[in-house]
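Quick question, first post here. What does this chain look like in 3D?
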Amino acid sequence: MEMVPGLPRTSVAETLAEKIVELRPGALPEATARKCEDLLIDVVGLCITARNEDYIRSVLAGCDDDGPCTAIGHERTMNAAGAALVNGAAAHGEDFDDTFEGGPVHAGAVIVPAVLAACERHNPDGRMALIGIAIGAEVLCRLSLVVPKAIHKAGFHPTAVFGAMGAAAGVSAALGLNAKQIVDAFGVAGSMAGGIIEYLAEGAWTKRLHAGWAAQSGIRAALLARGGFVGPRTVFEGVHGLFHGFAHTTQGDYEALTGQFGTRWVMDTLAFKPYPCGTMAQPYIDCARRLAARGIKPEDVTEIVCEVAEATVHRLWEPLANKQRPRNGYAAKFAVPYLLASGFVHGGVGLGAFAESAIRDARVLALAAKVKFVIDPDNPYPNNYTGHIRAILRDGGVVEERQPYLRGGAQEPLTRQDVVEKFRLNAQHGGWSATQSDAALQLMAGLHNGRIDLSSLRG
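> Answer (accepted):
Ran it through. Tokens below.
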């Protein structure tokens, strides 16, 4: 093909695609393969826990995509894109899924549903599913490092935007596409990416949809590319490319995307959440729980001041009155004043903290009304998620707590047993028996070593 003046000889997508096709099943480092296995366990549990929720019933009702693929926890089967949509929405729906601390982005809820559905329909080889999950998650995480914080600042959800690209990469790898086809898949996925964060205004459901929409977009992009459909090779860095559209700049650290790809795996640091709510809120809940463990009562507190990262304020702290008294359970997941108050009063934040009765708890709301924030210009977000509480007491005393990192993250990761226990609790919440959970865990333990059959995850 004749070069167009002004365009690079080798684009970012072409560099990345060449590195992707060099990776082979069985070549993953042990830590990376194990992280992929943890992602699978976590995502399946999350799909089960959300299977009876109203938003999943709505997604199912809105789909006419029946086919042979598994919507986890449901008897109904769907085509690959439909299964990826439902499973992705369910996995992300309770905001209990993994997170990448450098992003923040949620990899598992996008990549696992996309790769599982694509393989179940088109290439039921567990080895290819494993490499697809690893590559898809790695691409998604690395994309979030190119221009940190810019996507959120522009009003978009990074998981939705980068998720379509990561899913395209993961599905392409799992289906064995060549380098040219992977470039085209990236190019096509760039026109499918999107996801605004206006759900924050009133606690609407659209964020829940983002992971599933990105997952099905990745499948469609990969299949289109496999069929010969051509996408722009400068989809990332081009003057009208992904970063121009969603970050309002073409200047970024593209080496963070392509450098040492396949030899250094950033996805190894993916964090699993201890609480089903916004990631950056979690260290503040830990601080609140430790404060309560000192024997301090909510009624003893006159004011709580939290040091926060400026980039988190528009999502988790403002408007302050709304975050102190969220209008519904979903809005409460992104309201730090409510979350830390709930953790303080009840000793933790579980799935029940977002029921209608819970968000109207008088003691929780009374304490949340006392929570304020100040900007900490030295906060390390997004490279590290920290928490801080300074409580002023009625007797004039001042008590502080700090959490220097996200529990479940790189500095205090969950063990495999922790991930399995989380799966069991989520499956129980979703109405599955211990026998069903045991069978699912047995299936997942051998999934990457043989032919993929997900039929036992239905119903």
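The two ends are 51 Å apart (CA to CA).
The CA atoms of residues 233 and 379 lie 37 Å apart.
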